[in-house]
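Sample pair:
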Amino acid sequence: MPVCSNCGHKGTGKFCAECGQAFIVKRVTLLSILNEVIHTFTHFDKGFGYTLKELIFHPGTMQKNYLAGQRKNYQKPFSMLFICATLAGLAIYWISRPAHLNVTPFEEMREHFYRHYFVIFQSVMTPFYALITWIAFRKKNFNYAEALILFVYSLAFLLLLTILTNAIDLIPHRFETYYIEIPLMTAYFIWTNLNFFNTSSKWLVILKSIIILLAGWITSNLATTQVIHLMMQ
């Protein structure tokens, strides 16, 4: 008799009589992710609030449960990213201030890029960030598609976090918001990986997480600089 991977209820047929999820849950693949992306633009699921709560209090564990088959109550990953990216993009656009006086043309264009294209750029970079994560934590039962799901959910929450850190700009202060933003995002990313890879050495997970962040930050800054130079031509 099949057992539901979402609620543990035993039953017959194709779907669980208790929660409605299919008894047979297929492994996440690139093809299934493509279907999720298509689904994003046609449907919005009901689990946004619950998914957000889990990402706040149980990051990493939430993604692990999703990949294990407990998907009934969660917002689908690319739908979650689409919603969070839209909210973050609108917030950054309205909160970000115009370029300061006495700045170089490059600095002015960089602020323009951040205000208009930061969220889009980070979303486009997601497959690369996931690739770094997969390479760093590569093992037999962890494929690239699963690394992509892990990172998509994390990025969705981190984009919402940028709304709060950017909102600090509305308050008169004498420090740059990235002094708050970078430590918060670093701590969240490490916490997520510690929960997801909880069978590995904690210090090794922390070290790999820092390497992933540095590799992503360097690559992102190099790519951003090139894009800004092209925009200035």
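The chain has a mean pLDDT of 86.
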